[in-house]
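## retry 2 of 3
previous attempt timed out at serialization; input unchanged, resubmitting
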Amino acid sequence: MKIQFLGGAGTVTGSKTLVEHNELRILIDCGMFQGLKALRELNWEPLAVDASSIDFVLLTHGHLDHCGWLPRLVKEGFLGKIFCTSPTKQIAKLILLDSAKIQEEEASKANQEHYSKHEPAEPLYTVAEAENVIPFFRAVEKDIEIELTGNCYFKFFQAGHIIGACSISLHIDGKELVFSGDVGQDDDVLMYPPEKPTTADYVFLESTYGNRIHPTNDVLFDLELIINQTIDRGGNVIIPSFAVERAQTLMFLLWQLKKQNRIPDIPYIIDTPMGIKVLDVFNDNHQWHKLAPHECEEMCRMFSMITDFEDSISAIYDKKPKVVIAASGMITGGRVLSYLERYIDKPENTVMLVGYQAEGTRGRKLLEGAKEIKFYGKYYPVEAQVTLVEGLSAHGDQNDLLSWLNKLGKKPAKIFLVHGENEAADALRLKITERYGYNCTVPLLGQAIEL
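## retry succeeded, writing output
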């Protein structure tokens, strides 16, 4: 058996792990690289193996860094099946179409304003190419064994993180390979706790927060303080947010604060068409999250939901203080850029970061104190307050990841730490070795390993 790490190694994006056994080829996730330019450029490279030779894709969840390269895979000739849970199919469809639309819009804008070095600028994939992926999806239930070939089967099991997210237990020729996908927090606001594997010969564990412990801060208090201080000085709170789960978590927390009269009666805006559509996925899949139907309905009534860009423009130029949740979470694109274009250079405003900011993203640069930020080919001075609210991550921290391993009855032959920057992955490697004595390694991007 051969494993090749085609993405998500040494970085938290571009997750792709290829499993080969005899003539069988299975790709675990097919994500887009984000962040550093050197990584983003990899999205334009052909896959290291012939896409038509891949039999199956097993998708852990619908975030862009796990499913965002599927249109390119299909374009390169993939003809197999993409297995995922039903909510993941819904989420992945939304994310792929949204990603394609944003890329088309940004390429068009770059061509109109001539700020791209490419002539003409082109999207990584089009909306039509994203739509071509949909017929390949096969939605299956979690906790049920699905046979792929005579000596190969898999099952999904609950991972927390976002709606529909699962880990994978893959059995090939008597060996069990467990892929964590992204592991959620045990006490997530909306998601149920992740299930832990009890057996595995090889484990592929994410390490996003492998060197971090989430703080025990009172998130509601932090949100209350930031919003009230900003509104008191006549400013706006702009919250770049991932459209899936993070936006819904923020909605829930702001709803709680409003019910307790802890934040003012001002406009609360959701300006992410995809995030709004994700609410439909929540309503369709109540067994996957903690919110009751009546809570979803009451929570949504608090917010003005913007889908048309004309309404975004009206909101941007409305001088009344407001709180806006807009995609994307790491400020790599999306409507949040239009708000920042207007608000980033005014000291009364606040940009509230609420999740992981990958290396090379605008979010990471703001977090590290950048004095100016570039988008749409221009630099904008950063005068707004930039603050990080911790404890809202959809990823488990070092303790959660260590705990995820604690029900393994037999020592695995090896643990591979993926989906983490090198420092985080190596810190987790040391902790796993110290606590469990497991053989643990951090693979390199592109590395191939024989099992």
